[in-house]
Amino acid sequence: MSVEATIEQKLLDTFSPSYLDVVNESHQHNVPPGSESHFKVVIVSKAFEGERLIKRHRAINSVLADELAEKIHALALHTYTEKEWQDYYADSVPMSPKCRGGSKVTS
Predict the structure, then answer these.
(1) Residue 74: which residues within 8 A CB-CB, separation 6 or more?
(2) For position 1, what pLDDT does the model report?
(3) Averaged pLDDT, 83-102
């Protein structure tokens, strides 16, 4: 199973999201073609009700601990309650931050 599919399945199973988008953004970075190392996750779930942003991110990081330890270099998380999603982002998905080229070697 691909890293992208694994992320998607684990998040579906754990958070039962009303909206989930897992995007492999590796091609935007200095990595070999076909890499699965940089991802953006947009997730909307009732599980986030009443939870601060840090707790939402920690919950996702916990679920994806194996992938983060071995396969994922960068993970942009956009976590919302259903109300937040409807109020702010229902018509557009947030962009990930620009890569700062951490793996590039400069002389």
Answers:
(1) 25, 29, 37, 38, 39, 99
(2) 87
(3) 70
